[in-house]
């Protein structure tokens, strides 16, 4: 079983296109594990997929993208489905980071961080993770420091994604500095 491909397919199904699998996410993004497995098994590649592979996939991944609980599974962040996935509000640490491409920086420093194609802006707890995120779009990404605690105290909502990924609706430019 190719666990990396399985993770990518699940991210696609649970973040972006549940309808293609005839799945419906609940308000927190959960779907029934058995329904998901049945939908996956319709494709030849996943005919043999079982629940244990989902656990192995989560275990094998360096990033905690998915979560299983009580017979349900969900993506923890990254959604672009039209129905807004409700996330748990949580006070962020003093600072968070965002790695981005050089070509986006002037627009970000003018309009702030916006969710673009996804439902939320994604922020990282540590600089290393943020730089990795930025490297997806730029060999030499720019690291932005987000003054998260100040933004929170002044009314910006932050949400918990996983231990390393934080979410926000948007971040005003006044809380962002270029590292
Ligand atoms: C940029 C992956 C211009 C923003 C990653 C980013 C992450 C602006 C892009 C997770 C802007 C959106 C999310 C503005 C934001 N003007 N550009 N005002 N505001 N942007 O992919 O944070 O591996 O939606 O800087 O590793 O790059 O899939 O967000 O470059 O954790 O699990 O607009 O997705 O995780 O891009 O990545 P994205 P992201 P996985």
Provide a descriptive summary of the structure in words.
There is one protein chain. With 179 residues, the chain is an alpha+beta fold. The chain has two domains: 3-75, Arc Repressor Mutant, subunit A; 96-178, ADP-ribosylation fold, CATH 3.20.170. Helices cover 31% and strands 19% of the residues. The chain has helices at residues 3-16, 33-41, 51-60, 105-111, 127-135, 148-153; strands at residues 31-32, 66-69, 72-75, 96-100, 121-124, 142-146, 158-160, 165-168, 176-178. The strands form three sheets. The protein has a three-stranded antiparallel β-sheet. It has a three-stranded antiparallel β-sheet with strand order 4-6-9. A hairpin with a 2-residue loop joins β2 (66-69) and β3 (72-75). α1 crosses α3. The chain is elongated and about 50 Å long. The mean pLDDT is 97. Bound molecules: ligand HQG. Ligand HQG binds next to α4.
């Amino acid at each position: 079983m190719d666990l990396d491909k399985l993770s990518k397919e699940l991210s696609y199904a649970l973040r972006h296109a549940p309808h293609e699998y005839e799945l419906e996410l609940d308000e927190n993004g959960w779907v029934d594990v058995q329904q998901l497995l049945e939908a996956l098994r319709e494709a030849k590649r996943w005919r043999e997929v079982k629940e244990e592979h989902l656990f192995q996939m989560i275990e094998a991944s360096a990033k905690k993208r998915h979560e299983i609980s009580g017979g349900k599974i969900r993506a923890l962040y990254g959604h672009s489905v039209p129905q807004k996935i409700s996330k748990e509000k949580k006070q962020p640490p003093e600072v968070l980071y965002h790695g981005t491409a050089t070509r986006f920086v002037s627009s970000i420093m003018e309009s702030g961080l916006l969710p673009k194609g996804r439902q939320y802006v994604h922020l990282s707890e540590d600089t290393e993770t943020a730089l990795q995120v930025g490297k997806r779009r730029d060999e030499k990404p720019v690291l932005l420091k987000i003054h998260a605690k100040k933004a929170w105290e002044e009314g910006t909502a932050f949400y918990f994604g996983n231990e390393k990924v934080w979410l926000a609706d948007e971040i005003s430019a006044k809380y962002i500095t270029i590292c």
